[in-house]
Amino acid sequence: MIRVTSMLASAVCCVALAGCAGKPVEEPPRVDQKPPAKAAAQEVTLRTTTPKELAEAIAKHRGNVVLVDYWATWCDPCKKLFPHAMALHGELAGKGLSLISVSFDEAEDEPDVLKFLAGHGATFENFRAESGASPRSAMEFDIENGAIPFMRLYDRTGKLYKAFMAPIKAADVEQAVRELLAQPASG
């Protein structure tokens, strides 16, 4: 496998993952919260993952509503949307929302990914797609239209409730999360 430099990977992936091509992220009516204070005391981690391992991670959160955010440091709309997911998690984690992030960055860019995550207090589960910025990641993780940002929302049983394709409206994500959290938990 030929290693592609970060810059070239960004250019290639912005073509393959069209959602990162500068489409604006619509601002929601409210998400000005900061990460919870306890986040600063916790460590931000990043693990490499495959689709199978991600499915296992989602299954571990059964009983919670799970939002999975697929993003990359080279994708400006992704970086603009990330704080909205963080704010939603900060507000609703105590009500049963789990947030998982999956970066489509290259292995050599992990320090930048960790710096971005730490800067946002992202102490939940953070993964980096094993295939990195390759178009293969979009294919393996079944990203509709191959574009990021991309989000998936799972109900408390682990069943896919909704997928959000670029351009993502943060208000739509928030509404869907709140709808799911309002549903009674069943055993």
Would you write up a description of this structure?
With 187 residues, the protein is α/β, with parallel strands linked by helices. It has a single domain, classed as 3-Layer(aba) Sandwich (Glutaredoxin). It has a six-stranded mixed sheet with strand order 1-4-3-2-5-6, sandwiched between helices. Strand 2, helix 3 and strand 3 form a beta-alpha-beta unit. It starts with 5 loop residues before the first helix and ends in a 5-residue tail after the last helix.
CATH level 3 topology: Glutaredoxin
Listing every helix as H and every strand as E from the N terminus to the C terminus, the arrangement reads HEHEHEHEHEEH
Q: From the coordinates shown, what is the CATH architecture? A: 3-Layer(aba) Sandwich
Structural class by helix and strand composition = alpha/beta
Q: Residue share in helices?
A: 25-40%
Distance between the termini: 46 Å
How many DSSP H or I helices?
6
Outline:
This protein has about 190 residues and is of the alpha/beta class. The chain has 6 helices and 6 strands; from the N terminus they run αβαβαβαβαββα.
Labels describing this entry:
6-stranded mixed β-sheet, globular, 187 residues, disordered N terminus, alpha/beta, single chain
What's the SSE blueprint?
Blueprint: H1 6-16, E1 47-49, H2 51-60, E2 65-71, H3 76-92, E3 97-103, H4 110-119, E4 125-129, H5 135-140, E5 150-154, E6 160-165, H6 170-182
Parallel strand pairs: 1-4, 2-3, 3-4
Antiparallel strand pairs: 2-5, 5-6
